Amino acid sequence: LAVTILMLLMLLEESLNPAFVFMIVQSLILVMYYTWEDCIPCVDDSEGVECPESRALQGFSNSGVLTVGILFVVAKGIEMSSVLKYFIKYVLRKPANLLDAQARLLFPVLAFSAFLNNTPVVAMMIPVIGNWAVQCRLNASYLLMPLSYAAIMGGTCSLIGTSSNVIISGLVDDDPYSVTYFPDGVGFFTISIVGVPAALAGLVYIFIFSRILLPGDDRNEKKQDEVDGDEHIYEEFQDKESRRGSQEETGRGS
């Protein structure tokens, strides 16, 4: 309990890297385990219960954990390919307004998250959407937060959409009593009957209330104005240089 409270306090300190925090917490747990080993309860195998030593790495053999790891590799491959370029060129393009931009973005993200784990989907889309918002003079806050929510809702539409679904499916398969409710196990679209209507209702809510509830931010418009200003200055500089060059050539010719 003390280690858990310490971890939460360290995570509240935003200046600390979360990976560094978890590394410290895991190191403390290992030190405590080997220092106060007698204080940790361990039931003998003769009673039919495994000791903590044999269960320490059991989670890494869970099919859900392996599935999530593989999906991260797939998402990285998509990110390194030219798929996202075609997505920007043919799907996002130039929206007419904020509602059009959200519709172009959220429906594909919802579909991607149903067939590809939602965490890597958000990770690979954040830089793309940030640049797209600047180019289209849109507030990034109206796109990035809905992006996260659409990915979460899309993850509830299929078995592999989110890591919690995969892990729960593995627990159901290991539970002998679950055969009463899931005789064939949890299917790929078993939760879709609830997830799809909930996801569509969530998108409607985002379209209606995002402009009201999310904070406005005009930094992207300022960035684009700075870019336009720099381009204008560069064009004027080029015009002056070209005129100066033509005048020098005229003077030499005369």
N-C termini distance: 90 Å
The helical percent reads over 70%
What form results from the Cα inertia axes? globular
Query: Radius of gyration over alpha carbons?
Result: 27 Å
Number of domains: 2
H-E string: HHHHHHHHHHH
Low-confidence stretches: 223-235
Could you report the average pLDDT, rounded to the nearest whole number? 75
Membrane topology: Multi-pass membrane protein
Pfam families: CitMHS
Subcellular location: Membrane
Keywords: Membrane, Repeat, Transmembrane, Transmembrane helix, Transport
Task: Set down the secondary structure blueprint.
Layout (H helix, E strand, L loop, with lengths): L1 H11 L5 H18 L16 H4 L7 H18 L2 H10 L5 H18 L2 H18 L5 H15 L7 H12 L17 H22 L5 H35 L1
Please describe the structure with a list of short key phrases separated by commas or semicolons.
mainly alpha, 2 domains, 254 residues
Concise description?
The protein has 254 residues and is mostly helical.
Describe the fold and architecture.
- The protein is an all-alpha fold and 254 residues long.
- The chain folds into 2 domains: 1-56, no CATH class; 61-230, no CATH class.
- It contains 11 helices and no strands.
- It has helices at 2-12, 18-35, 52-55, 63-80, 83-92, 98-115, 118-135, 141-155, 163-174, 192-213, 219-253.
- The radius of gyration is 27 Å and the shape is globular.
- 19% of the residues are buried.
- Mean pLDDT is 75; it is low at 223-235.
